[in-house]
Amino acid sequence: MTTPALTLSAAIRSPKHPGSPAIMPYVTSGWPTREGFGDLLVAVSQQADAIEVGVPFSDPMADGPVIQRTSREAIEAGTTLPWILQTLAARKDEIACPTVLMSYLNPLLAHGIDRLVDDAFAAGVSGFIVPDLPLEEATAFDAACARRGLARIALVTPVTPDERLRRLTAGEGGFVYAVTVTGITGGDLTPGDIHDYLARVRAIAGKPVCAGFGIRRAEHVAALAGHADGCIVGTAFLEALGRGDDPQAFVAGLRGT
Amino acid sequence: MDEPIDWNAWPDGQGRFGPFGGRYVPETLVPALERLEQEAKAALVDDGFLETLAGELAAWVGRPTPLTPARRLSEAWGAEVWLKREDLAHTGAHKVNNALGQCLLAKRMGATQIIAETGAGQHGVATAAAAARVGLPCIVYMGAVDVERQAPNVRRMQAFGTEVRPVSHGDATLRAAIDEALRHWVSDPAGVFYCLGSVVGPHPYPWLVRQFQRVLGVEARTQFVHATGVLPDVVMACVGGGSNAMGLFHPFLADDVAIVGLEPGGRGTGLGEHAATVALGTPGVLHGTYSLLLQDPFGQVQETHSVSAGLDYSGVGPEHAFLHHTGRATYEVVPDEAAMDALYELARLEGILCAVETAHAFAGAKRWAAGHPGARILIGCSGRGDKDLPILSAWEAGER
Ligand SMILES: Cc1ncc(COP(=O)(O)O)c(C=O)c1O
User: Fold this and answer.
1) Which of A79, A197, B71, B384 would give a disulfide with A30, using CB separation of 3.0 to 4.6 Å?
2) What is the model's pLDDT at position B1?
3) For chain B, how many structural domains are there in total?
4) What are A68-87's pLDDT values in tens digits?
5) Which of B205, B238, B264 corresponds to the end of one domain?
């Protein structure tokens, strides 16, 4: 039986453009505008292999200045998790790729975890990335996800020991989020430095591996081809949106097409 | 009657105090926190470490601090009032007990750099001094609003050779400073030691900071019994993150003694007007711990207001949430106005200028005395007010 988590894995393993790693842009929901959010998702989904839909939070401790700022502006504009879920549900049939909700834990707790999983499932969401929910605290969350076949995507980092890596990446469905840097979002990557690390993660993980943090340009994506199944592009994508660039062209440009 | 709670049994292996606490952090920090937990547990049962700590607490901090009978205050309030004088500890507040302990631990763990956050600047000053004492470089993050209202402490940190980094985003107070210190730590979890200043944050900090602050409660309990032959009727302390209060309360938890924490009521009870987290907050996760916090219905953490920078925080230590949850301690709210009145009353009756944070405990104690004539009240005098001269000037000029 297929589940949203397995569908997500498959979308990353078989990207729209097979020569390139899967491309997964991150967007801060409700930014740059609330009115344009649904249309933005639909447009980006034509090009992207999956979309990371960010829930803005007041204290994004793993994020750099750009995501801090977009989050603050989105919250000030009235963006809330229920509104994000409603928008996703309303545009579900037009969104042409899997979506993953990326959120710090507190907004999810405020919604209620069981209700969250039901609402997310109904909105067509495939899974969750929760940067401040480590494995040790995730038992109840995982049980709730399992009910609906949604993925909780584990983050791993260059300082994660092998033994822990094994526990973090166990099971199937979704993908492994390989944080490329020991640091926060918004940096600039040197892809050659992380080939060994990605090889180590891929050797252990039984699911696709997507690299994220500091991936900004087509050269980065090209240099990660063959080393990662997918690339997550957050800060650079938001900067492009902020400049008013065409989001579909930006995603296509990351593939060098 | 239910089984009495064994207060020493908490936190459990997951860093929980009942339902509160835990470790909600980015994966990058998990190995660093696991190592900190192991090393801290080993250090706190190691005779050599404990001897060094005790030696430094005596020779460098000036412990034990006195227990002072407040004679004129007692007369004015119709109670028997005693003060545990953390204002007389080196650098002027209880914060140094924890800062010294953590800096010694950092040295033992081979850290190359200390970072810290600070609100009022007292934890920053204490960490700057302790880092100098153990010989490690130090960076302190401080909200831009606090850099201005606690300017004397910025100069003191700089004199100790510490770099003070103002944080101007977010609420530009303590919460933003912690966010930024965590971001710094995420970028070098192996070399950097994060010296967290209160009983907040991910496990093991709430436990570790409490253990380093417990010295003040242990001393106070012994001194009180020695001076009076009995225990106090009530123990009272101000609560920001809650470290001076946890240190004072913990040795009294198994006693038949009332325990009251005083939180900053600011200028009202609306969201954003106060920082009374236990009294008015709801459960949630902030800065790596599940505790009570001030948030909107969608889980966004709210800004706070307090005349005192050190209490101006939307979260609170998980052990306080637990003491509240079990009913073992009660938490009351003190508005800015009452705290400032109490500060001047203490100064004029006892010749002690306490910190604006500390003044909240005095205002709460005065109210408590009015309802309990003749009661024996032990107040945690957490710090001195020299740093607050700009706040006093502004207050006297009518700024609210
Ligand atoms: C003198 C004094 N008391 C109390 C506090 C509040 O901290 P905590 O609640 O951790 O004791 C501070 C914090 O800066 C302080 O400087």
Assistant:
1) A79
2) 46
3) 2
4) 999 999 999 999 999 999 99
5) B205
Cβ-based burial of B326 (10 A; exposed 0-12, middle 13-18, buried ≥19):
middle
More confident residue, B195 or B189: B195
Cβ within 8 Å, pair A61-B183: yes
Q: pLDDT per residue over A42-72, tens digit each? A: 999 999 999 999 999 999 999 999 999 999 9
Q: Which tokens sit at B370? A: 């009015």
Per CB-CB distance under 8 Å, the chain A contacts of B301 are 58-59, 106
Catalytic annotation present for B107:
no
| Assigned fold of A4-14+21-242 | TIM Barrel (3.20.20)
A136 is a catalytic site residue: no
- Please check whether residue B7 lies inside any domain of the structure: no
Which residue's alpha carbon is at the smallest distance from atom 15 of ligand 1? B310
**φ/ψ (deg, to 5) at B120:** -70, -15
Tell me the ipTM for this assembly: 0.95
Average pLDDT along chain B: 96
The domain of B114 spans 24-57+95-205
Q: Which two tokens stand for residue A34?
A: 């609330």
B241 pocket-lining for ligand 1 (C-beta < 6 Å)? yes
Number of A/B CB contacts below 8 angstroms equals 111
**Domain co-membership, B164 together with B261:** no
| Contact assignment for A57 to B299 by CB distance below 8 Å | yes
**DSSP secondary structure string for all residues of B8-58:** GG-S-TTSEETTEE-----GGGHHHHHHHHHHHHHHTT-HHHHHHHHHHII
